[in-house]
Design brief:
Helices cover 54% and strands 18% of the residues. With 673 residues, it is α+β, with helices and mostly antiparallel strands. Among the domains are: 117 residues, no CATH class; 157 residues, Heat Shock Protein 90, CATH 3.30.565.10. Strands 3-2-1-6-5-4 form a six-stranded antiparallel β-sheet.
């Protein structure tokens, strides 16, 4: 029997187990001698660690958490002050833009020239003051002499001037410098009255000289306005003029910093917090002190929370210590003692069937189960090995059969894939032939349609020029409708022809020459003014003085870019205005910018608008004048052909869209022999 137990070596299994029993007996004697010492060490370790953790947490909460609450409170106060400053700057910027709209208006320009006597009565009504939130309007001539002044108070109406408007006072409110578009925007103090002020030179809508006068808008920054601003920003703020004779400490510190949007945060008491910042006057000098007051709710809440936390943590720590000692006794020490008694029973009685039962799923229970099942494991291991060998041979045979079947299946799939690729190649060739036929037909139809459309437009313009006699207003309206729709159709045919050439990769070479830049803007009015008048839109244009009088390039391609952008703006602008601007980006490039007040473009559609035939609304219920979606696609292709870039942005917060095309200034190549 002993001979049959000899496996995996020459040493009998009984001898191995005897050695294991002897080893466990020695371990038991060591555990028995140190069992009480372990209990003492565990108790001492837990108590010491708990005390150190309590001291450490108390120190950390006092020096880190409480300081963090204070810093968080200061940062939030700082952010709130910056938000107030940004809001004031934004309101001033909006106010300045409103003043610019009125100052660069042809009606205002004509009034200062003595050609529009009803301008004041028609425009500066109580409704205008209320809608624009104006409290003061001043008009001066080019010499700064007051021509018109009016003050308005909501709920009261027009009121007398609350302060004197002498020549020196008015001169301090006018824009500085010789720049036509110079402005003066900021907060001013006049005889104890704080105002938000924006002033501009009065020019025509094209911003051309001469300057005929100045327009000054004012808005009272009184207690009601500051209270409304505080309510909007959910804070408590005050704005006061700096008194150099009684300068406080906060003002002196901010003047020393002299940085943009410099903010000073103070925490004078445990209940109050305040922040300070300086606001410049029209001359860019610090003149007003902004104070934002608040309460230290965060700090006090943090202090209260920390106290609750420390108290709760102490209570939890005590409960945890007691529970930990009980669990260690039940889960570790008592089980080790039970295991020790079982091992001693094996040693004393040499009975290998002594039950060793330790409940649980941890290392102690695993050790007991391993010790109990070691003999059975050795006896069963050989039988398991023979069974595994048989199963392995069966798996090898089955895997061989499966591999042969997989090879046959793979051969069949390869054959089928080759057939599918041949069919795909044939379908591709047929599709390319159909595409080439379609492009040829499209190009022929587009080319043949241009001639009759050009003749229609020419004869319509000749009729409008009375070359064939006078006609009635009704006939003139009909001719205008014919001309507008013929121009729309010609633009559509031109786009269709350009798209067919681009699709067939037959783009013509650029025809470059010198051309006058002013003709681009002139052609816009000639071609699109009837369309704009038909939709009651205001179509304007402007050219910066830094743009050269002549540019070298393909004028027809550039004109097609401008025409497509303006045509697109007219299509998608139900009401309002369209403005075309031409200016230099830098010394190497110029910009064509077309902005409108139309329906705008959704953010998810920006990447698709330059795709051919793509439309935001492709349904049959869409506007019949929306086209087929080629205009912007052609603009992008022509821009890329000329080495430029195009971008589109929404006019936030105003409605509409702005397209910006940047093209390089090109120089004519010099031919040398």
């Amino acid at each position: 029997m002993a001979k049959s137990l000899q496996i995996w070596g020459s040493q009998p299994l009984v001898a191995k187990f005897e050695n294991l029993r002897h080893h466990l007996s020695k371990r038991y004697l060591l555990v028995r001698d140190t069992i009480m010492t372990i209990r003492q060490k565990i108790l001492l370790t837990i108590i010491t660690a708990s005390g150190l953790v309590a001291i450490l947490l108390s120190t950390l909460t006092e020096n880190i958490l409480l300081r963090g609450f204070a810093e968080l409170e200061s940062e939030m106060q700082y952010s709130g002050t910056i938000r107030v400053l940004n809001t004031i700057e934004q309101e001033l910027a909006t106010f300045s833009a409103t003043a610019a709209d009125w100052a660069y208006w042809d009606d205002t320009y004509e009034y200062l020239g003595g050609k529009n006597p009803s301008y004041i009565e028609d425009n500066f009504t109580a409704e205008t003051f209320a809608n624009l939130e104006l409290n003061m309007v001043l008009l001066t001539d080019s010499e700064g002499h007051l021509i018109y002044s009016e003050f308005y108070e909501p709920g009261i109406g027009f009121i007398p001037a609350p302060f004197r408007l002498d020549q020196a006072t008015i001169a301090g409110l006018l824009p500085k410098g010789s720049d036509l578009e110079a402005s003066a925007t900021g907060i001013v103090e006049i005889e104890g009255n704080l105002l938000l002020l924006a002033s501009r030179h009065i020019l025509d809508s094209h911003l051309n000289p001469p300057i005929r006068g100045n327009l000054i808008f004012g808005r009272f920054l009184d207690a009601n306005k500051i209270m409304a601003l505080s309510k909007t920003l959910e804070t408590n703020l005050t704005i006061s003029q700096i008194d150099n004779l009684a300068m406080n400490e906060e003002t002196a510190i901010l003047l020393e910093r002299s940085g943009g949007k410099s903010v000073l945060v103070r925490q004078p008491t445990l209940a109050d917090i305040a922040s300070y910042s300086l606001i410049n006057n029209l001359n860019g000098e610090p003149a007003f002190l902004l104070q934002v007051n608040g309460t230290r709710d965060i700090f006090n809440y943090g202090l209260k929370s920390i106290r609750y936390f420390v108290s709760t943590l102490s209570l939890i720590g005590t409960i945890f210590l007691i529970v930990m000692l009980i669990l260690i006794e039940r889960l570790v020490l008592s089980r080790i003692s039970s295991l020790n008694q079982s091992v001693m029973a094996v040693q004393e009685g040499k009975d290998f069937k002594v039950p060793v039962e330790i409940k649980g799923q941890d290392e102690i229970a695993t050790f007991a189960a391993t010790f109990k099942g070691k003999l059975d494991e050795l006896a069963n291991s050989h039988r398991a090995l023979e069974k595994a060998n048989s199963e392995l041979e069966a798996r090898v045979v089955q895997r061989t059969i499966d591999l042969e079947m997989a090879n046959e299946t793979l051969k069949k799939e390869v054959y089928e894939r080759k057939q599918a690729q041949a069919q795909l190649q044939q379908s591709r060739d047929q599709a390319l032939d159909a595409l080439r036929l379609k492009e040829q037909i499209l190009a022929n139809v587009s080319h043949d349609a241009r001639t009759p459309l050009s003749v229609i437009i020419l004869y319509t313009q000749m009729f409008q020029a009375n070359m064939y006699g006078d006609f009635t207003p009704k006939q003139a309206n009909a001719l205008q409708i014919i001309l507008s729709n013929a121009q729309k159709m010609l633009t559509f045919v031109n786009n269709l022809l350009a798209e067919s050439r681009a699709g067939a990769k037959k783009q013509e070479q650029l025809q470059k020459a010198h051309f006058k830049t002013s003709l681009l803007l002139k052609d816009i009015g000639t071609m699109f003014q009837p369309l704009a008048v038909e939709k009651k839109l205001q179509l304007t244009s402007s050219m910066s003085i830094d743009v050269p009088e002549e540019i070298y390039g393909d004028v027809e391609r550039i004109r097609q870019i401008v025409n497509n952008l303006v045509d697109n703006a007219i299509k998608f602008t139900p009401a309002g205005r369209i403005h075309v601007a031409l200016y230099s980006e830098d010394s190497e490039s110029f910009v064509i910018e077309v902005s409108d007040t139309g329906i705008g473009i959704a953010s998810e559609d920006k990447e698709k608008i330059f795709d051919s035939f793509w439309q935001a609304d492709g349904s049959i219920t869409r506007d019949v004048n929306r086209g087929v979606g080629l205009g912007l696609s052609i603009v992008q292709k022509l821009t890329t052909l000329m080495g430029g870039t195009i971008s589109v942005e929404a006019n936030t917060p105003n409605p509409g869209t702005t397209f910006k095309v940047i093209l390089p200034y090109e120089k004519q190549a010099v031919l040398t022999a």
